UniProtKB/TrEMBL annotation:
Keywords: Membrane, Transmembrane, Transmembrane helix. Gene3D superfamilies: Immunoglobulins (2.60.40.10). The keyword Transmembrane applies. InterPro entries: Ig-like_dom, Ig-like_dom_sf, Ig-like_fold, Ig_sub, Ig_sub2, Ig_V-set, Zig-8. It comes from Drosophila mauritiana (Fruit fly). This is Zwei Ig domain protein zig-8. One of its GO terms (cellular component) is neuron projection membrane. GO terms for biological process: synapse organization. Residues 90-177, 180-283 form the Ig-like domain. It holds the Pfam family Ig_3. Coiled coil: none annotated. The chain crosses the membrane at residues 303-322.
């Protein structure tokens, strides 16, 4: 109804100006009143078209039908605006997930969608202490892990919680500043889950052989778990290298990565990530055959003790334990 009143008020003001004795003498012999009406109607019609409330109307047809009558024009223009335009109340989109599961240390996102928000504000409130965390895109807490996210002209308002802690678990409310206020509750569940690569933290793979890595996430929440592999920052399945096979079993929460005939460029940090779980990484070194043999020899020489060391160890044991005679079992005393 505010639009309807604004249109009528504008045309009423124009009519009053035209009927003024002082101003009427100035504009009586000119087309100023008609031009003023045309400009006002053109402005409002353009505004309505932009807002999608009406379709464009041919300018010549409006003139031929005396569209620019004083109050009649205002009445006709205001009738183009729906009566219930201002009466539409904000409503929540209940299709969003309202139970969010996040692993300890990961980032949680709570998505709230509000239709027909208008000029109202959306707030996120923590229910356990009724602390207002965000209003609009502004944050009202000293905890910098809480952030508000919103894309212009969208219906979605997101509460982002970075580095989730166990104390963050609980209920959060998405609230709209209507009278009375309306709100929708979201539950955040924090779990302790970590993906695990079944290998040493550092691997040395001979050039030309295969990489075979297995990752498990037994504690990941839910019946199914989606798992991904990255080399450094690149998704392994998107690599143009070829010769890569990823076999995942979502129900068993396992994933196997095989890279055939590795080269030096395959060296790097390999990371396994799972839904609602912390990731795990190993570093793979690709080495030549000669380097591999040299490393094996060096490792063996470190484990082998030289004969001189064994002799010194034997002498040290004799000194510590005393003469060999003291090692002989004592004869029991005679009973005579």
């Amino acid at each position: 109804m505010r639009w309807r009143h604004a249109v009528r008020a504008t045309f009423t003001l124009t009519t009053a100006i035209e009927s003024s004795p002082l101003i009427g003498k100035v504009i009586s012999n000119s087309r100023a009143p008609q031009i003023a009406h045309e400009m006002l109607v053109e402005y409002f019609m353009a505004l309505l078209v932009i807002m999608g409330l009406t379709a464009p109307v041919d300018k010549q047809s409006r003139r031929s039908s005396q569209y620019f009558g004083h109050m009649a024009a205002a009445e006709e223009l205001s009738n183009l605006i729906p009566d219930n335009y201002d009466a539409i109340d904000p409503v929540f989109d209940n299709s969003t997930n309202r139970e969010i599961i996040a692993a300890l240390g990961t980032t949680a996102r709570l998505h709230c969608r509000v239709r027909h928000l208008g000029d109202r504000a959306v707030s996120w409130i923590r229910q356990r202490d009724l602390h207002i965390l965000t209003i609009g895109i502004m944050t009202y807490t000293n905890d910098q892990r809480f952030l508000a996210r919103h894309i212009d002209n969208s219906d979605e308002w997101v509460l982002k919680i970075v580095s989730v802690q166990q104390r963050d678990a609980g209920v959060y409310e998405c609230q709209v500043s209507t009278e009375p206020k309306i709100s929708l509750a979201y539950k955040l569940v924090v779990v302790t889950s970590k993906a695990q690569i079944l290998a040493n933290r550092e691997l040395f793979i001979q050039s030309g052989s295969d990489i075979n890595l297995t990752c498990i996430a037994p504690q990941a929440p839910g019946p199914y778990t989606h798992m991904l592999w990255h080399k450094d920052t690149e998704l392994v399945s998107d690599s143009a290298r070829g010769g890569i096979r990823v076999e995942s079993e979502q129900q068993m929460k396992t994933s196997n990565l095989v890279i055939s005939r590795v080269q030096h460029t395959d060296s790097g940090n390999y990371t396994c990530s799972a839904d609602n779980s912390n990731s795990d990484s190993v570093f793979v070194h690709i080495i030549k055959s000669e380097q591999h043999a040299a490393m094996q020899h060096e490792l063996g020489s470190r484990l082998a003790l030289p004969p001189l060391s064994l002799l010194l160890l034997a002498v040290l044991l004799v000194v510590l334990l005393g003469p060999t005679s003291s090692l002989q079992p004592r004869t029991p005393l005679s009973t005579r």
